């Protein structure tokens, strides 16, 4: 039988010490393993964050290159060409700047969208510049800049989804005249009524859904090589540089990015701060009914909507009252009264536009030649109004909601 003294001998004490040391070592190893795992996990997160930041910087660099390309086209189109004799004038439109020589002939058209040929030399070349009919079958060469974003109606998921178009909303064209923006139409044909038909165009149809309308704006992809060279893909899928002397895609200089862009012309859009509703006035020069009205019904002070030089001659009635004649002769009593009623309602919505005055050319010049409206409080109120920074604020304005 083992005695208590024998169990407490030197050998057992040594084994106990070894067991305790083993437990301590294993605990330390577990702690070190946890620390190493945490360190590696943090390193992986930092690495992924760094990679994302680098890729984001690359994407911004590619985007900036497109912006600089568009700016270069605009600067080239709006400055005098030293290589051409005489002086040039230019005219802008959405997607292009045209330069004309002194004799009125076209010098060139500089495209403000991504294309394999960024400069057109003749009017015929501009007219013939259309994408191939089956552009949507070649996603490596073309991209739709007006592809809509479709969002489910979160308020009522069973309703039709909400559709947002980045450039042109085709729903502005309707078979119902009162629902269509004045002057805006489109068709699937390149020349309006004939010619090449473009895939993807969905025009309004009687009884059809507005959400189904589509107006694609296909432009070509521009591919960028590792060394920064820009080019495009030919029909065979081969990279072609902007000029014959530029580099080609190789294993050492591969394609690393592709970009596409479209540059709009803001002067063709309605500015809610300036496009109230113009009533034309000009110095009478001829013996005509309109000239007679200009002489008898002159604009009064602060009646900016009658001053010459109305921005781009755009008016809110184009959207709010499409197809409505807003400037009939005063001899057409009923139509003139209706137009004045509409104009005064529009002036009430717009900032810094004073109602009254000559009331759209229907009030005679005062006998005392006092052109200032009698109610100066209205002048102070109009001048104190602030401009709308966005359409959203205009729509949230109390006068809009009330009316």
Report strand %.
5-15%
Radius of gyration: 35 Å
Strand order of the largest sheet: 1-2-3-4
| Oligomeric grouping of the chains | single chain
Helix content: 25-40%
Structural class: alpha+beta
Q: Helices and strands, in N-to-C order?
A: HHEEEEHEEEEEEEEHHHHHH
The first-to-last residue Cα distance is: 108 Å
Could you list the spans in which at least 5 consecutive residues all have pLDDT below 50? none
Main beta sheet strand tally, sense and closure: 4 strands, antiparallel
Mean pLDDT: 82
* β-strand number: 12
| Total of helices | 9
The shape, in one word, is extended
Task: Kindly describe this structure.
The chain is α+β, with helices and mostly antiparallel strands and 403 residues long. It has a domain at 289-396. It contains 9 helices and 12 strands. The chain has helices spanning 4-7, 10-78, 123-127, 289-296, 317-320, 333-349, 376-384, 391-396, 398-402; strands at residues 89-93, 96-100, 106-111, 119-120, 142-144, 149-151, 162-164, 218-220, 222-225, 230-233, 239-241, 255-259. Strand 9 (222-225) and strand 10 form a beta hairpin. The mean pLDDT is 82.
């Amino acid at each position: 039988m083992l005695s208590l003294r024998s169990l407490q001998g030197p050998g057992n004490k040594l084994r106990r010490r070894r067991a305790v040391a083993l437990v301590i070592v294993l605990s330390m190893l577990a702690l070190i393993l946890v620390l190493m795992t945490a360190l590696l996990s943090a390193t992986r997160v930092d690495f992924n964050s760094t990679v994302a930041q680098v890729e984001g910087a690359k994407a911004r660099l590619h985007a900036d290159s497109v912006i600089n390309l568009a700016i270069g086209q605009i600067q080239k189109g709006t400055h005098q060409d030293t290589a051409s004799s005489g002086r040039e004038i230019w005219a802008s439109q959405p997607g292009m700047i045209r330069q004309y020589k002194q004799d009125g002939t076209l010098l060139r058209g500089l495209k403000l969208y991504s294309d394999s040929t960024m400069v057109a030399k003749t009017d015929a070349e501009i007219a013939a510049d259309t994408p191939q009919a089956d552009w949507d079958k070649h996603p490596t060469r073309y991209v739709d800049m007006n592809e809509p974003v479709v969002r489910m109606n979160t308020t009522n998921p069973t309703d039709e989804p909400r559709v947002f178009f980045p450039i042109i909303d085709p729903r502005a064209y309707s078979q119902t005249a009162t629902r269509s923006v004045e002057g805006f139409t489109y068709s699937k044909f390149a020349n309006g009524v004939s010619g090449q038909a473009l895939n993807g165009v969905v025009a309004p149809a009687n009884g059809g859904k507005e959400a189904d309308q589509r107006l694609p704006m296909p432009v070509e992809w521009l591919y960028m090589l590792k060394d920064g060279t820009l080019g495009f893909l030919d029909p065979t899928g081969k990279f072609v540089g902007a000029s014959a002397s530029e580099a080609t895609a190789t294993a050492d200089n591969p394609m690393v990015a592709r970009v596409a862009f479209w540059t709009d012309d803001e002067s063709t859009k309605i500015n809610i701060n300036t496009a109230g509703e113009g009533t034309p006035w000009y110095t009478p020069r001829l013996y005509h009914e309109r000239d007679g009205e200009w002489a008898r019904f002159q604009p009064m002070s602060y009646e900016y909507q009658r001053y010459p030089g109305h921005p781009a001659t755009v008016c809110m009635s184009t959207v709010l009252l499409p197809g409505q004649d807003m400037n009939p002769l005063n001899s057409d009593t009923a139509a003139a009264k209706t137009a004045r009623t509409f104009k005064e309602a529009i002036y009430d919505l717009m900032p810094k536009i004073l109602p009254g005055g000559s009331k759209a050319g229907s009030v005679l010049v005062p006998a005392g030649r006092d052109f200032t409206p009698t109610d100066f409080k209205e002048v102070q109120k109009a001048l104190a109004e602030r401009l709308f920074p966005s359409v959203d604020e205009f729509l949230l304005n109390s006068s809009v909601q009330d009316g």
